[in-house]
Design brief:
Layout: H1 9-16, H2 23-58, H3 70-85, H4 91-113, H5 119-142, H6 146-156, H7 165-184, H8 186-193, H9 196-201, H10 206-228, H11 234-246, H12 251-273, H13 284-302
Helix pairs in contact: 1-2, 2-7, 2-10, 2-11, 2-12, 3-4, 3-5, 3-6, 4-5, 4-10, 7-10, 11-12, 11-13, 12-13
């Protein structure tokens, strides 16, 4: 209903169910707002699941999908595509660059994960990789043209818009499959939350579990970042909101709860970004940061009571 053009609820329902409406209304609802709403739901859900996995795996309430440097890898891929070509390549080139860059960083993280035992060591390594990749992006920005730099900055603001149905299909398959994959890890995550030593004593295959969590998180994060840009704070804040609302530590409850909460928050952020009557959309990352930052501050103030 909401956006630069306000539509009555009746017209929206008629357009969604194929009833007779004006061509303008049909284009707005079916070709613009419906794809954006589905993208916001899928991206919010996927990032929230990744945030839960990272926070549980690293036993760190401030861990998120970007903690391993995968988002920075996507940024580097886009920077190479946009800044070195002067912004001449189409959106498909940006998506490919983001996915390729994130996959390269994910491969580096997985190879390092095979050589280290402690999750905190892997966490530090991921952060350092992210910093190095970000430094490379800054160097590329320094020598780029104004037009290319503008395109890159707009991509970095994040957006749920301009998604084609073929791209939504890919995103939905990855996020839905990722949800069931994460749900299959629920019992292992419960064991892991009681301590690494206890989990091993109960028969948990430490290496297999680690690779599975990292691979799942990396794939979902890379796909969402490739299509929507680096979305901030949803993966970090939503798991805490879901824990507080559902008040459960079991991952058979938390994973669906986080997925639903991520859908709601994703849609809510997109709605706020497109305030009724606004001529243009607000930067999505500005909205998610305003909503997510207070949650992180509350986590810091609570300290040990978070878990």
């Amino acid at each position: 209903m909401f956006g630069s053009v306000h539509l009555p609820l009746g017209e929206v329902i008629s357009a969604l169910f194929g009833q007779e409406v004006s061509e303008t209304t049909r284009l707005i609802v079916i070709e613009s707002r419906l794809p954006r709403a589905i993208t916001a739901s899928l991206a919010g859900s996927g990032l929230a699941i990744c945030g839960l996995l990272m926070q549980r795996f690293f036993q760190n309430p401030l861990a998120g999908p970007s903690v391993l440097g995968i988002t920075s890898g996507a940024s580097l891929g886009v920077a190479l595509v946009v800044l070195l070509t002067g912004g001449a390549l189409a959106a498909v080139g940006i998506v490919f660059g983001a996915f390729f860059g994130s996959m390269v960083v994910l491969l580096i993280i997985l190879l390092f994960a095979l050589r280290v035992q402690r999750p905190v060591t892997l966490l530090i390594f991921g952060l350092m990789v992210g910093y190095m990749v970000s430094a490379a992006v800054i160097l590329l920005q320094f020598g780029s043209s104004k037009e290319a730099l503008r395109s890159f900055v707009f991509w970095g603001m994040g957006s749920f818009s301009d998604m084609q149905w073929s791209e939504i299909t890919v995103l939905s398959v990855v996020v839905i499959a990722g949800f069931f994959w994460a749900f299959s890890l629920a019992r292992k995550l419960d064991l892991w939350s009681l301590g690494e030593s206890y989990a091993r004593s109960m028969g948990l295959n430490h290496r297999q579990f680690r690779i599975g969590v990292l691979l799942l998180t990396g794939i979902i994060t890379s796909i969402v970042t490739a299509y929507c840009g680096p979305i901030a704070f949803i993966g970090l804040a939503v798991p805490h909101l879901a824990r507080g609302f559902w008040k459960s530590g079991k991952h058979t409850v938390l994973i669906p709860a986080v997925a639903i909460s991520g859908m709601i928050i994703g849609l809510g952020c997109d709605l706020i970004a497109r305030l009724p009557g606004a001529e243009g959309a607000l930067p999505l990352n500005a909205v998610t940061s305003f909503m997510g930052a207070p949650v992180v501050i509350a986590i810091i103030l609570k300290g040990r009571r978070v878990f």
